[in-house]
Design brief:
mainly alpha, rod-shaped
Length: about 100
């Protein structure tokens, strides 16, 4: 039964990790919205602004991928928990038949 208790903890951690990944995504949305609004405040050379925005765009996919990876890791933990519980149930049924 300790295994089942541990797997419930793993599931809980997985849910928390997924939630953190979703929160990260929201922060990225806010950050990139703020960056997009910089144009109206930009007082420097327009060419510098264009270079800045190109660099931001270049890194955006990588930054957003972090959130997806965090969420996928959380899902993996949940799947491990579920699969281990299924395995435990199967073992219990097999032992009961012996």
């Amino acid at each position: 039964m300790k295994l089942l208790e541990k797997m419930e903890q793993v599931k809980t951690v997985g849910e928390e990790v997924k939630k953190q990944g979703e929160e990260y995504d929201l922060l990225m949305d806010q950050m990139y919205q703020s960056i997009q609004s910089l144009k109206k405040y930009w007082t420097g050379d327009q060419a510098d602004y264009i270079v800045f925005m190109e660099r931001v765009a270049k890194e955006e996919n990588s930054m957003r991928m972090v959130g997806k990876i965090i969420q996928e890791y959380g899902q993996l933990l949940e799947d491990i928990s579920e699969n281990t519980n299924i395995l435990g149930d199967s073992i219990q049924m097999t032992i009961g038949k012996v």
